[in-house]
Amino acid sequence: MAIALARVHGPMAWFLGAAATALTPVLRRRAVPAPHGHTFGAVSPSLRQYAEAEEAVRRLQDTLTRLATV
After folding, report:
1. pLDDT of 8
2. So what's the pLDDT on residue 20?
3. Beta-strand (E) ranges in 1-70?
4. pLDDT in tens, 39-66
5. 18: how many CB neighbours lie within 10 A of its CB?
6. C-alpha distances in angstroms, 63 versus 12, 13, 44, 49, 57?
7. Whole-angstrom Cα distance, residue 38 to residue 19?
């Protein structure tokens, strides 16, 4: 995502940056539990963070669909 953002300017860069910010807490969470219940410092995202990530994915999908049909 960072490489893609480096080549994008203007409103699209702001849009993608905001989406990345909303997705970060969810994507940072470990997908596979560690042995013996250790989490290596990972913190579960809050319900609000999940909702923000879900909204960011919806907006990304809508925007990319509109761009593909233009």
Report:
1. 62
2. 84
3. none
4. 666 677 889 988 988 998 898 888 888 8
5. 13
6. 10, 13, 28, 21, 10
7. 29
Angle at alpha carbon of residue 11, lines to 26 and 22, rounded to 5°:
10
Residue 28 and residue 36 in contact, taking contact as beta carbons nearer than 8 Å: no
Q: What is the pLDDT of residue 21?
A: 86
Instruction: Report the distance separating Cα 20 and Cα 2, nearest Å.
Output: 9
pTM assigned to the model = 0.59
Cα four-point dihedral sign 14, 7, 57, 50: negative
Distance CA 22, CA 38 (A): 26
Q: Structure tokens of 34?
A: 């560690």
